[in-house]
Amino acid sequence: DKYKRYLQSCYNARALAPADKYLPTLDSPYINLAMIRRGRYNPEQRDEFTRRTLHGGVDQILQSKAPINIEDLLTPEHSGRPVRFVLVEGPPGIGKSTFAWEACRRWDEIESLRDYHTVVLLKLREKWVLNAASLPDLFRYPFKQEFSENIAQELHHSQGCNLLLVLDGFDEVSHSFRENSVIKSILCRQLLPECTIILTTDQWPIH
Predict the structure, then answer these.
(1) pLDDT 10s digits, 127-173
(2) Which long-range contacts (CB under 8 A, 24 or more apart) does 176-184 make?
(3) Matching PROSITE patterns, A to Z (predicted)?
(4) CATH fourth-level superfamily of 2-26+64-206
(5) pLDDT tens string 69-97
(6) CA distances from 6 to 16, 82, 112, 153 (A)
């Protein structure tokens, strides 16, 4: 609870965005979300939806998208399985970073987020994220210095259970960072395998 209260106060005060002078206010309107669910890929399936989804261009499959509210983003699937990974993809300026802040700010308001004990927003372009060599390094800035070692140990011990990581700006990092970093280990489930991840990016680097 002490971590939760501290982080919520930071998100409400926008204290975790010292270098982002272009961040719009949270009162500004931002783009509506559309959900595209990915099931098991069948290589024999050659329909337009599959081709567009696998190779980018999701904006061109208008009839295959369904609008979704931020409140429903992490709602369990029809099978009852929890959602462990959400990709928020779109062109520059569409509101991905604003969405990331809005999700963190409304942590205690959104039903599907309330069960997370810890919600951490990491802006991937920040130097302290790029240079992180360990979990304590990664959490040194979001938390008070006296918290960073403790929270890293607790999250490592729990394997990231009840942790939501919001990773903003995957398109803004270099190829070498994606191939060799603490963030890559998290995305590949080598670290914190039980955490839930929301990843924002422009369209082209993912495909």
Answers:
(1) 888 889 999 888 877 776 667 788 888 999 999 999 999 999 998 88
(2) 177/124, 177/130, 181/130, 181/132, 182/132, 182/133, 182/134, 182/135, 182/137, 182/138, 183/122, 183/124, 183/129, 183/132, 183/138
(3) NACHT
(4) P-loop containing nucleotide triphosphate hydrolases (3.40.50.300)
(5) 777 788 776 667 788 999 888 888 888 88
(6) 11, 26, 20, 18
Helix (H) or strand (E) holding 197: strand 196-201
| In the chain, domain spans | 2-26+64-206
* Type of residue numbered 53: T
Is 0.85 topped by the overall pTM? no
Instruction: Give the rounded percent of residues in the chain with a pLDDT score beyond 90.
Output: 22
